[in-house]
Amino acid sequence: MKIAAQSLQNVKAYIRPLDFYRSELPDMPPPRGSGWRDGGLCPFHPDKHAGSFRVNLETGAFTCFSCGTKGGDIIAFVQQRDGLSFPEAVQKLSNDWGV
Ligand SMILES: [Zn+2]
């Protein structure tokens, strides 16, 4: 699967990590400010206690201190959560967000 350069550009330019995580992480507490925030329950392991999953609302990076899952942006988040390749994740984001 070939990645459309335009899709990658649009995903990076138009999907704000803040909006993305607000939509994808229903348990995330309302974020105040930017930078690293509590992401609520971790979507990568059966998480019962919020507090170990953190997201960076500027860069889209995420990390879980409990299961060790981490990545550098929202594309990596979708890749790991949905088991997709990089081009597939970009395509999904592009479709889902209409960019
Ligand atoms: Zn986790």
Characterization of the model:
- This protein starts with a helix and ends with a helix.
- A hairpin with a 5-residue loop joins β3 (62-64) and β4.
- The protein is globular and about 40 Å long.
- The chain is built from four helices and four strands; from the N terminus they run ααββββαα.
- Strands 1-2-3-4 form a four-stranded antiparallel beta sheet, covered by helices on one side.
- The chain has a single domain, classed as Alpha-Beta Complex (DNA Primase, Chain A), CATH 3.90.580.
- With 99 residues, the chain is of the alpha+beta class.
- The structure holds zinc ion (ZN).
- The site of zinc ion (ZN) has 9 residues, from loops.
Give the helix/strand layout.
Elements: H1 5-14, H2 17-24, E1 36-38, E2 53-56, E3 62-64, E4 70-71, H3 74-82, H4 86-97
The site of zinc ion has 9 residues, from loops.
Short note summarizing the structure:
The protein is 39% helix and 12% strand.
List its salient traits.
DNA Primase, Chain A; 4 helices; 4 strands; binds zinc ion; alpha+beta; 4-stranded antiparallel beta sheet; 99 residues
Secondary-structure element order, as H and E? HHEEEEHH
Structural class of the helix and strand makeup? alpha+beta
Bound molecules: zinc ion
Low-confidence stretches: none
Provide a count of the helices: 4
What is the tally of beta strands? 4
Terminus-to-terminus distance:
19 Å
CATH architecture: Alpha-Beta Complex
Average of pLDDT:
94
Number of self-contained structural domains: 1
Strand % is 5-15%
- Main beta-sheet strand count, sense and barrel state: 4 strands, antiparallel
Kindly provide the name of the CATH class.
Answer: Alpha Beta
**What is the C-alpha radius of gyration, as a whole number of Å?**
13 Å
Share of helical residues: 25-40%
| Strand order, largest beta sheet | 1-2-3-4
